[in-house]
Amino acid sequence: SKGTNNLLEALRICDNDSKLVFAGSSEEYGLVFSSQEQYENAKKQYGNIFPDIEDGIINELPISETNPLRPMSPYAVSKVYGEYLCRNYYHSYGMDTVVSRAFNHEGAGRGKMFVTSVITNQVMQLKMGLTDRIVIGNVNAFRDWTHVNDIVNGYMALATKGKSGESYNQGSMRTNSILSYILLSLERSGKTVNSIATCNGDKKIESPTESNDDEFYGVSFKKTKVDSLMLNDELQYNIEDKGIIVDTDDGKVKIEFNPARFRPAEVPILFSNTEKIQKLGVKNQHVLTDIIDDQLEYFSDTNNQ
Questions:
Q1: Please, are residues 250 and 191 in contact by the beta-carbon 8 Å criterion?
Q2: Domain that holds residue 208
Q3: Is 0.85 surpassed by the pTM of this model?
Q4: Which of 110, 120, 265, 279 is the most buried (most CB within 10 A)?
């Protein structure tokens, strides 16, 4: 944030006609509510919610630019701070600043500490016989994943057409679970997923990757059977389950839950409303499996693993 402040001040002193597009983040939204139960649980865990829910409206999904900001990590707080700096320099000095609140953007070469790379790297190692399982944290979290090339095109649109002083979401208007990302990655690597169950045989789901376009939160989008069950609060996994056994046409694959990989303050769901940036002519060209395919190909080179 100090670097952002220095850059803004340098541009102000130079008094040129530069336009600054600030790379904010969907993490700025942080704690987003989709049900009364989730809201009540959050109040028990965190105490007072700020900003609190107004007029009893619990569902805050999909996330639009007018959603409250409740950052849940130092990174997210720094992005909120940077965004407010940009807004202040626009209102105080008339500087041309635009903010992108990009949701998760993924692709080949994504850092190996990020969950999509953690998954696809292990899936490729599994295919090569370098490991016998996939180790992961919370598989219940939902994310709005977009191909990095689509996000780059969005940045170009903001640089040329974005309105000064405004913030714009960038995302896919789709949300999928981490578990779905694992299962789809297994399928894209050549394994047909028949069913899943916990290590002790509970919570068995047949054809878990079966696709549907059912409506959730007023939006129809592509998701798996597993996603629908989770979004309907009919399926949930916890550390006590220890893991999931995936039955495939090529044998069984174990997904092992590692408690050390669970975040202390996990954002449960991210789901973007991108109608605002779409009005600038931005239209995504890639689907979720395009991201997975690119990452699997990248990790097929052992030098990248």
A1: yes
A2: 2-304
A3: yes
A4: 120
